[in-house]
Amino acid sequence: MGELLLRKIVTCRERIEKLRRAIPTQAEDVATDERLEAFLSFQLFLLIQDAVDLAAHLVAERGLAVPASQRESFEVLARAGVLTAKSAEAMARLSSLRNRIAHSYGDLDVVRMVRELPVGLTDAQQFLDELVVAASMV
What we know:
By secondary structure, the chain is an all-alpha fold. It has five helices and no strands. α1 runs antiparallel to α5, α3 packs antiparallel against α4 and α4 packs across α5. The chain is globular and about 45 Å long.
């Protein structure tokens, strides 16, 4: 794994910690704090985008099937044995959330996002760990 990808993994890990520290005790608090909502949404968007970029890069680097979507990049990596099926599915779900954040779809429930954020961050951490393990085997 190249230096650029390793730096991106480190950036993702740092972003996960920023998000963990910013999660309010009561998820409902995000609905009344526009700055907190903006911070959490943007940091989560950047984290997911970096994960999508990592997946796309690895798919290309390894000459795997060309994915038709961001979501499919994770599935391709799972089929190649780089990711577990569980991790690929979790990251695919996060990529869908990235699209809802990016396009400001009306169906983004920020309170639900905050409630589910700890699980999503754990999933992202697992994804990063699997990439590091896969890179050490190459």
